[in-house]
Amino acid sequence: MAKPVVKKEYTLSERIYLWEILKGMKLTWGHFWFNFKACWRPGPHTIPTCWQYPEDRTREISPIFRGEHMLQRDDKGREMCIACGMCAKICPAQCITIKKAKRKEGEEEKYAAKTYPAAFEVDLLRCIFCGFCEDVCPKNAIVLGQEFEFARYTKEECILDKRKLLMNYRKAKEEGKLKPPRKRVPVVPAPPKPEKAEGGEAKKSKAAVAGKTKKKPVAKKKAVESAEGTEKKEAAEKEE
Amino acid sequence: MDDWLIAIIKVVGIWVWVLLIAVVMTWVERRGAALIQDRPGPNRAGPWGLFQPLADGIKLFTKEEIIPTKAQKLLYIIGPLLFSVPAFSAYAVVPFGDKIVLGGKEIILQVSDVNIGFLYILAIGSMAVYGVILGGWGSNNKYSILGGLRSTAQMVSYEVPLGLALLGIVFVYGTFSLRDISLAQQGTFLGFLPNWGIFKQPLGFILFIVAAYAEANRVPFDLPEAESEIVSGYHTEYGSMRLGLYLFGEYVNLVTISGIIVALYFGSWHMPYIDLGAYLGPISWGIVSFCIFFLKVSFFLWMFVWVRWTLPRFRYDQVMGLGWRGLIPLALFNIFITALFIQLTV
Amino acid sequence: MNQNPTPQTSHDTGDYVTVNIGPSHPAMHGTLRVIALTDGESLIKVDPEIGYLHRGVEKLGESLTYHQFIPITDRLNYCSAIPNNVSYEMAVEKLMGVEVPEKAQLIRVIMMELARIADHQVCIGILGVDLGAFTPFFYLIIQREEIYEIFEWFNGARLTNTFGRIGGVDADLPDDFEQRWEELKPGVRKANDETEKLLTHNRIWMDRTIGISAFSAEDALNWGFTGPCLRACGVKRDLRIDEPYCMYDKFKFEVPVGKNGDVFDRYIVRMIEMEESIKIIDQAYKRYKEMPADAPLMARVPKVIKPPAGEVYSALESPNGELGFFVKSDGSAKPYRIRIRPPCYMIYQAFPELVEGELIADLVACLSSLNVIAGELDR
User: Fold this and answer.
1) Is the pLDDT of residue C296 over 70?
2) Which residues of chain A have a CB within 8 Å of the CB of B32?
3) Same domain, A87 and A171
4) pLDDT, tens digit (0-9, with 9 covering 90-100), for B231-282
């Protein structure tokens, strides 16, 4: 196939190679000299663009970073998860397994709600850290923390059970790395005719809208069956 | 007997010294590249990562030596040897200082002052190509053979401008001996310019340095091992110390080439405008001249690193074009001008 | 010796050598493979083979709900995940007939243009690396790191952003966005400037790129080129202007156009596009600031997304070209079929045509200038 004829006139400085090469060398020398001076700075973080990672952990990690999971406790030290199973349902990688249990008498100190997860497993080998689980959690119980060092030796260690998740929370609390409550994204206000929401289905939209704007009792929320709309995030401001 | 002893000491000494520089060069290359690219580079092994070459050496020595099943064993094994032995032996005629007087005996700081030093360098330099082509052919890998072929074509082509550029120097100084040329570079001419080769042969210097980069397979002429095109070129299939020989050989080549550049074009061990030899004693002058020489050499070694991390790579046919259509006519022109000038002034 | 399969060709392979390049080769981005029939250094016939990174993304979409597919789209073009997310979300929104709030659209524009800059930086940096110039890569990649920082502070992920939700975005811009952006802008410009200084007028670079794998506008259109590769051929086609989405018609920016469609033009087009992206972000952020702080960011969408039965195709101008999603719904909570139209796929088809008769070194240059991303190509 005929290729288009290419004609480009080189200027003299381009033609003789050396001029542009010298200009380039001047530029690289500038970088070299800057970094050479920076090398003598005390501390592990010498060259501004590089962090000497294992020693130098001064790089600021975003507080909303999506790292290793943890299960939060409320300010009384009770587990907040109500085992509603929304996170397990929304998870694209299906890495969360929850076993639900009812709170018994005398366990009010341990669990915040009437139900609690008897088992809560997160498979880090499957997880893709999309953050949907924390997005969908009505109690802000499961969050993705700032921990990003996932290397483990065995497969079993990669499966976070409830104990490890709660431990992650304790560790984060001690280090002051708790995740700030997520800001609720404002939604377009309800149209004049609340019966019909745009989109395919209108049946449950009323409840959904109510859920977005005002608090609902916990018991009622269990009625909300399929919780795959992730924009909702009402109970972010917990019972505090 | 004494002469023998001195010769052996000089040979061993310079061999160790060049090897040492080559080893340090691997470190300089990495650190220099890193600093140019806004990163710290290897800084774990020892202070400032200075033991990194040592760690690399240990790694290369302790690795298993693998010969590919269908490789041609003999060629595969002698390839690195043929590459590194000429690299080490080329330094023999390059000086590394003026002279030193020990116990009333005058010792010139040069392994041997051959009166055809130039020809020796050119001859030995062309030997290296055998190592490359045999290694490339012997490893039975298509990338290797492409690298070997590229290298052969490039080295053979650039021998010509290299030799022609050197011819200009020979015209000017009227000798083939590197020591005599070095000695002739003392003092000034035209009243203010040092008597250095670069001022007498500016075009020749540029031609020589370009051709030397090509001979040493450095960027922008690193096509024989162009990583992104043919993986590693001729040493794709090599591992352990055989690979180490290729890599060390390359750095030793750099030292030799820098030494030649300094000896021919940059006034060898002379400082500009000042003759230190007149003020210093015979022993201290020997040491000082050695230091001056290697300061200059290290500048050119750094140039190799600096240029490498600045420029893109040529293409195969463009390298050939530059060599045959650009450098050789220029070199001939240079010779013509030099000859004319000499003819008119003498 | 013959461990490589011969290419399917009717050529008489007598004097030619088959060189198998890839799938693991320093210059084959990701896992591409090219079987080249060579005569010395020049390429007689080139046979690209794809599918080494095939993960069944489209089929995966059929067993996930509409929302669950968003993180999967991150993994298509991993150099710039955000346009992938947005393109998919736009397709579903179009199917549902949802109007995205203006402020959310502005955030999308800002983030997409940032992703475009990041993508072009990677592409140009890698092009440099493949042509032997290592240093510009680092200057560019440092700035990309700063862009990733903004992404990280926006919603917590750097590479696989999972940006946005169907009907809007998942987070507002961080409070210190303006400060970060003002810090980033001169950095990006400086890095581009330095890259230009090191490469553009360097004769070695010009020789290596000008006229290499040149393509005429007609051929490019016939092969279905889009994006910078098409614009380098001289066709002024940009979905941001031709079929505006996300309020792109409200911004003033130039669409750079090349002449020859060679590697150099693609490089220059990408360079200029980065500068234009900076302008777009500036304008978008100015509009964003004029909006009230509590302006909605999400349209009203039901929690379970069940679009009405039907099918829709929606495309946007991703950094590589037209990135389209075809979504067919049967009214259930899971899509009936998802088809992705990646820009690379169409461009890579023409690869044998582009490099035929060139040298092996040009094959590498051409491949990196096309910015073929294996994740997007193989899906």
Assistant:
1) yes
2) 32
3) yes
4) 888 888 888 888 888 888 888 888 888 888 888 888 778 777 777 767 777 7
Q: What is the DSSP letter of B274?
A: B
Residue A95 lies in a domain: yes
* Structural domain includes residue A59: no
Query: Do A76 and A162 lie in a common domain?
Result: yes
The per-residue DSSP string of B240-266 comes to HHHHHHHHHHHHHHHHHHHHHHHHHHS
Which letter, b or e, does each residue of A95-120 get, where b requires 16 or more Cβ atoms within 10 Å of its Cβ?
bbbbeeeebeeeeeeebbbebbbeeb
Measured CA to CA, the distance from residue C323 to residue B343 in angstroms comes to 71
Ramachandran area for residue B332 (φ above 0: left; ψ -120 to 50: alpha; else beta): alpha
8 Å CB contact of B146 and C25: no
In whole angstroms, give the CA distance from residue C47 to residue C24.
16
CA-CA distance, B239 to B62, in Å (whole number)? 11
Interface size A-B, in CB pairs within 8 Å, comes to 45
Chain A: partners with 3+ C-beta pairs within 8 Å: B, C
pLDDT at A3: 54
Residue A203 lies in a domain: yes
Task: State the average pLDDT over residues B25-45.
Answer: 86
- Asked if A47 and B38 touch (Cβ cutoff 8 Å), the reply is yes
The pair phi, psi for residue C13, each rounded to 5°, is -85, 15
List of chain A residues whose C-beta atoms are within 8 Å of the C-beta of residue B311: 21, 24
How many angstroms separate the CA atoms of B42 and B48, rounded? 8
Could you report the per-residue pLDDT of A128-148, keeping only the tens digit for each? 888 888 888 888 888 888 888
Same structural domain for residues A78 and A162? yes
Looking at the structure of chain A, the number of domains it has is 2
The shortest C-alpha distance from A81 to chain C (Å) reads: 21
Q: Which residues of A touch C162 (CB under 8 A)?
A: 130-132
Q: Check if B40 contacts A (Cβ < 8 Å).
A: yes
pLDDT digits (tens, 9 = 90+) for A156-168: 888 888 888 888 8
pLDDT digit string (tens) for A80-97? 888 888 888 888 888 888
Is the pLDDT confidence value at C144 over 60? yes
Please indicate, yes or no, if residue A57 is contained in any of the structural domains: no
Read off the CATH number of the domain in which A118 is found.
Answer: 3.30.70.3270
Residue A194 has pLDDT above 60, yes or no: no
User: How many CB pairs below 8 A link A and C?
Assistant: 184
Q: For position B313, what pLDDT does the model report?
A: 87
Query: Are residues A83 and A156 located together in one domain of the fold?
Result: yes
DSSP state, residue B51: T
HSE-up of B13 (CA within 13 Å, CB side)? Answer: 12
pLDDT in tens, A17-75: 888 888 888 888 988 888 888 888 777 777 778 888 887 787 888 888 888 888 888 88
> A172, C282 in Cβ contact below 8 A?
no
pLDDT (0 to 100) of residue C13: 53
In this prediction the ipTM stands at 0.84
Model confidence at B1, in pLDDT bands (50, 70, 90)?
low
Helix (H) or strand (E) holding B187: none
Mean pLDDT of chain A: 74
Domains of chain B, residue spans: 2-345
Q: Does B299 touch chain A (CB under 8 A)?
A: no
User: What mean pLDDT is reported for chain C?
Assistant: 85
Q: How many residues does chain C have?
A: 379
Full residue range of the structural domain in which residue A218 is found: 194-232
